[in-house]
Amino acid sequence: MLECRNIHKHYGGVVALKGVSWKLLPGEVHALCGENGAGKSTLARILCGITARDEGAILLEGRPVVWSGPVAARQAGLGIILQELDLFAHLSIAENLAIGNARLEASAWVSPTALNDAARPLLHDVGLELDPASPLGSLSVSQWQLVAIARVLGLDAKIIFMDEPTSALTDDAVERLFGLIRRLKARGVAIAYVSHKMNEIFRICDRISVMRDGEMINTATCAETSIDQVIQQMVGRAVTTTRGEKILATGRALLEARQVSTRKLRDVSFTLARGEILGVAGLVGSGRSEVGRALFGLSPVTDGKITLETSDYAPRSPHDAVARGVALVPEDRQREGLIPGMSIRQNATLASLSKYSRASWIDRGQEAAASREALANCRTKFADQELPVRSLSGGNQQKVLIGKWLLTHPKVCFFDDPTRGIDIGAKDDIYRLVAELAGKGLGVIWVSSELPELLANAHRILVLYEGRCLGILDALSATQEDIMRLATGHRNSLS
User: Which of 119, 64, 3, 13 is nearest to 391 (CA)?
Assistant: First the structure.
């Protein structure tokens, strides 16, 4: 249905794709696997007309094609759900669904009623029972992801590229998406599925193609390969998916929250010890991110008390929080963490710039040296720190974001789903980094949508349900079932 032959792509001196050839068959779900930076997203963007190739050929149903841009590819029946969502917060859900859809943009005059009516069945297909007239900016990250999926469905495409479509979805939303994929497959729609979640890939896909360093390494059916083989091909080295023994660095109290309430939290209490990794679990809307917002001075605390190192802690702003030694690595690195057009160096030092400036003048040498050290500590891969941060893979962007906050030398760091949408090699780097930070006495609060990740890395796991803490579990003895019981509002004997 779709084929590429000998595709090459360079960005300056960086080789993104080296002679990649690949085929997508009618009615198949074909996984594209590889570490961040392997070339998966670049290949998808070239095939969908977003990025121009340097060399090579694209064939659609056996006929050579040259895209003038993404509109031409969409008109030919190709749709793509990008990992970094290309949606507009200030527009309504329905307006976002209409953008780029020739059928919904058929007239220069817009009928809001007709637009909303056209949007409702698309939202229903992905499990979003929302008012299409609602502003997109009022939705959560997971709901943005579902809107992006609904938009591609509205194109009635015969070939769909899904780049990390489940990275922000809850389990029930993932199941609904998989049901949708099966229906599309039965209609003959071909789906290229980019993901780092091996269990998903082996469950939903027919074939797997592995990329590494811009080259196509191998293609096989799921029955012909295994998770271990795919991971080995992806990273070129062995990666452990289980962590070592978790030893609490000191155990002395560092942070304590007593019956804290905000607009979304109700009477939440917990303690965080020096050197502890405290996991936070819960369904979307449970208040996981709100804990970080309260600690970082973004959400006012309306009741209760927080203590940091025996002193009262009530940050009036993020600036105040940073000054007291609290850092927040946000869930959405593109909207809340990084400035894509600025350089890697500028992003890395943005939160600590006052350390390298005097009387409004920045000491560029000192700043560059600090940036290099922080990026090296986070195992960030880059050719030149003066390149824009958007030129990096998702995993390396995440490492820049973490390095940015570590340069503030925090005592407490809140990580909000730090491994969302990154590959298994980058995840392993972040797991090791967080363990090293905890080993040095940093207090870590770690939100994750992946329960095995919390069980493997955290010392204890705080479980939230509708803004309340229903229990704190010992990660060594807890199970995924124990966590989900609490996350759905049912207390158990371990809490």
Answer: 13
Which H helix or E strand runs over 362?
strand 361-362
Picking from 77, 89, 65, the residue whose alpha carbon sits closest to that of residue 155 is 77
Give the orientation angle of helix 364-377 with respect to helix 394-406, to 10 degrees: 120
Distances (CA, A) of 146 to 104, 194, 423: 19, 16, 21
Query: Which domains does the chain carry?
Result: 2-235 (3.40.50.300), 253-487 (3.40.50.300)
Question: Are the beta carbons of 41 and 70 closer than 8 angstroms?
Answer: no
- Average pLDDT over the chain, rounded to an integer: 87
Number of C-beta neighbours around residue 260 at 10 A = 23
Q: Are 393 and 11 in contact (CB under 8 A)?
A: no
Structure tokens at 18: 């080296």
Residues 424-443 have pLDDT tens digits of 778 888 999 999 999 999 99
* Helical residues (DSSP H) of 276-332, grouped into ranges: 288-295, 318-324
Threshold 0.90, pTM exceeds: no
